[in-house]
Design a protein that fits this description.
The protein is an alpha+beta fold. It is about 40% helix and about 25% strand. It has two domains: about 140 residues, no CATH class; about 160 residues, no CATH class. The strands form three sheets. Strands 4, 5, 6, 7, 10, 11, 12 and 13 form an eight-stranded mixed beta sheet that branches.
Length: about 325
């Protein structure tokens, strides 16, 4: 498959409605990069990141930073994608997969989504906003498909939430749009946000939890799922690149301590300070924790009766996402 074919495929969201379609696209993209790149550029400051540079058919564009410790190549992906599917089957059946397979969960999700993002990086510069929008929508849908594959009800949509007075009488309805609305046994159990990065978005996620639970007098869990928090930066030397972090630890800590902690924050490509910092490490985990344990623990909590809230599903499952 040519680069033009891959880009056309990645920009058509109608081609991504099943996990199998995501996996198939990733396989084709990884096969292309084995032979179709102009160069692989190593990051100057964090050498395990690299950038793909396309040839003339991709306007010599340079991709987003890709973590070589997480990104599978074509040969490895063929094997690991099959294992990924088997692990999801185990989780769906209520089994606990081996801890040895946790990295398979993290790396497969990362590789699939970054294949889409990197393919979209071959679009002309004037279409970068469209590329970000499509990439964000497809990541949101990907996570939702993973959750649904485990026989868990999950949609994207807008809720009409009743706000009541102290006597329980409804005063008005407040509208909330969310990427993940996860329910079980006629109860809304989890509200979630899915973004490719936390850049310019982390504040809103904390505020959403605060306002929702204050207005509804509930303690409904709110989670956030991010792909990574790195971006490309130019160095002083021409044709050399590095990476910079987009995560704001000060903001995250302030909202966690002074407003309310989120009930789960998950990354594929977790930053070193999220592991080494005592406070951050208590609240931020790699995405395998969500699928292995946290999803099931949150589903066991008391939820909010679905009859109280009217959920309008987004057409084709697409929520607003400008990531």
């Amino acid at each position: 498959m040519s680069l033009a074919d891959l880009v056309a495929h990645a920009t058509d969201k109608e081609r991504f409605h099943t996990l199998e379609q995501y996996i198939a696209f990733c396989s084709r993209y990884l096969e292309f990069v084995e032979i179709g790149l102009q160069a692989r550029i190593v990051s100057q400051n964090e050498v395990h990141y690299q950038f793909f540079q396309y040839r003339q058919d991709g306007s010599f564009n340079i991709s987003r930073p890709l973590n070589s410790l997480l990104m599978y190549d074509a040969a490895m992906f063929a094997t690991e994608a099959a294992q990924f599917t088997q692990t999801l089957e185990q989780l769906k059946d209520g089994e606990q997969p081996s801890d040895d397979l946790r990295q398979n969960i993290v790396r497969t999700i990362y590789t699939i989504q970054q294949s889409i993002g990197a393919a979209l990086d071959a679009l002309p510069a004037g279409m970068s906003n469209q590329a970000r929008k499509v990439n964000g929508d497809l990541f949101e849908r990907f996570i939702r498909l993973l959750i649904v594959s485990l026989k868990v009800d999950c949609v994207s949509g807008t809720m009409q939430v009743p706000v009541k007075d102290s006597n329980g009488a409804e005063l008005f309805k407040s509208s909330y749009q969310h990427d993940l609305l996860i329910s079980e046994d006629a109860e809304l159990k989890i509200i979630g946000s899915v973004k490719t990065s936390s850049k310019d978005r982390i504040d809103k996620i904390f505020m959403d939890k605060f306002l929702y639970n204050r207005l509804t007098d509930t303690a409904l869990p709110h989670i956030a799922i991010f792909l990574n928090d790195v971006q490309r930066k130019k160095t002083r030397r021409e044709n050399e690149y590095g990476v910079s972090a987009t995560f704001l630890p000060g903001h995250f800590k302030a909202y966690t301590v002074k407003l309310n902690p989120l009930d789960g924050v998950y990354y594929c490509d977790i930053r070193p300070n999220m592991v080494s910092d005592e406070l951050l490490s208590q609240h931020i985990k790699t995405i395998d924790h969500f699928f292995y344990s946290d999803l099931w623990e949150l589903l066991n909590r008391h939820g909010q009766n679905l009859e109280e809230i009217a959920i309008e599903k987004k057409e084709n499952g697409d929520g607003k996402n400008d990531t």
